[in-house]
C-alpha cells in the first residue's frame, strides 16, 4: 500500500466503550498515525459548549451539534494526511449518521425536517468524498458497563446520560455493525470491550495482528 493511502481503521462503539483508550494503546507503534475525536471543538465553538447544550436540551440542540460533528469529523478525514502506512481514527461520519442521528430520529427528539436536512448533508458528502476505510473495529460494550465508565471519567457534559440513552445507542451500533442494517464501508472486527484490564490487553493484541500485519 502506498504512503498516500495508508491502511485506515475506524474505531467505533458506544459512549464509554474505550475508543480513546484503544487509540492510546497504539501510540507505542511508530508506523501508526492516530486521529482522535475532536471533542474539544464540540465543547467550545466560540464559547458555546454544543456537547453540553445537546445533553441539556436535545430537541433544540441535537441538529446543531450533529452538523458540527459532521464538519469536524470530515475535516479529520480530509486534513490528517500522513506518510505512515497505518492510520487509526476515532469514530467516523458513518457512525454519526447511522447511530446518533438515527437514534434521535427514532426516539422523536429530532424532528423529521431536521433529520432530512442532516440526511441530505450526509448524502452530499458521501457522494463526493468516500472516506478511505479498510477496517472497522467495533468496541462492543454492554450499556451498563459503559455507564460505569462514563461516571468514572466524570466529563461534566455527560453527567445526565441515562442508561436508556446508552441502550438505544447500543442497539443502533448493533444494527449497523453486527446486523448490517446500515452502511459499512469495510469489514468489521468485534472486540470484547467489557473485558477486565488483563483480558482487554489480549483483545488489543488480537487487533494488533490484523492492523499492524507486517507494517511494524
From TrEMBL:
Alphabetical list of Pfam families matching this protein: dNK (PF01712)
CDD domains reported in the protein's UniProt record: dNK (cd01673)
Domain of life: Eukaryota
InterPro entries the UniProt entry points to: DCK/DGK, Deoxyribonucleoside_kinase, DNK_dom, P-loop_NTPase
Catalytic residues, chain numbering: 90
Gene3D superfamilies: P-loop containing nucleotide triphosphate hydrolases
Record's GO cellular component terms: mitochondrion
Domain Deoxynucleoside kinase: 10-210
Residues binding ATP: 13-21, 149-153
GO terms for MF: ATP binding; deoxynucleoside kinase activity
Keyword terms: ATP-binding, Nucleotide-binding
PANTHER family, A to Z: DEOXYNUCLEOSIDE KINASE (PTHR10513), THYMIDINE KINASE 2, MITOCHONDRIAL (PTHR10513:SF24)
Protein family: Belongs to the DCK/DGK family.
Protein name per the record: Deoxynucleoside kinase domain-containing protein
Organism expressing this protein natively: Polypedilum vanderplanki
Amino acid at each position: 500500500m502506498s504512503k498516500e493511502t495508508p491502511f485506515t481503521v475506524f474505531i467505533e462503539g458506544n459512549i464509554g466503550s474505550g475508543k480513546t483508550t484503544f487509540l492510546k494503546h497504539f501510540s507505542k507503534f511508530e508506523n501508526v498515525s492516530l486521529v482522535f475525536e475532536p471533542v474539544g471543538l464540540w465543547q467550545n465553538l466560540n464559547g458555546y459548549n454544543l456537547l453540553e447544550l445537546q445533553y441539556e436540551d436535545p430537541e433544540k440542540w441535537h441538529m446543531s451539534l450533529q452538523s458540527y460533528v459532521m464538519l469536524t469529523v470530515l475535516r479529520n478525514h480530509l486534513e490528517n494526511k500522513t506518510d505512515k502506512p497505518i492510520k487509526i481514527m476515532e469514530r467516523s461520519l458513518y457512525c454519526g449518521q447511522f447511530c446518533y442521528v438515527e437514534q434521535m430520529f427514532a426516539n422523536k427528539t429530532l424532528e423529521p425536517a431536521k433529520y432530512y436536512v442532516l440526511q441530505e448533508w450526509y448524502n452530499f458528502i458521501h457522494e463526493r468524498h468516500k472516506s478511505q476505510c479498510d477496517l472497522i473495529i467495533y468496541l462492543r460494550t454492554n450499556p451498563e458497563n459503559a455507564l460505569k465508565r462514563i461516571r468514572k471519567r466524570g466529563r461534566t457534559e455527560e453527567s445526565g446520560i441515562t442508561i436508556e440513552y446508552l441502550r438505544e445507542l447500543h442497539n443502533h451500533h448493533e444494527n449497523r455493525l453486527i446486523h448490517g442494517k446500515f452502511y459499512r464501508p469495510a469489514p468489521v472486527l468485534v472486540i470484547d470491550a467489557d473485558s477486565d484490564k488483563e483480558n482487554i490487553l489480549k483483545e488489543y493484541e488480537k487487533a494488533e495482528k490484523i492492523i499492524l500485519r507486517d507494517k511494524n
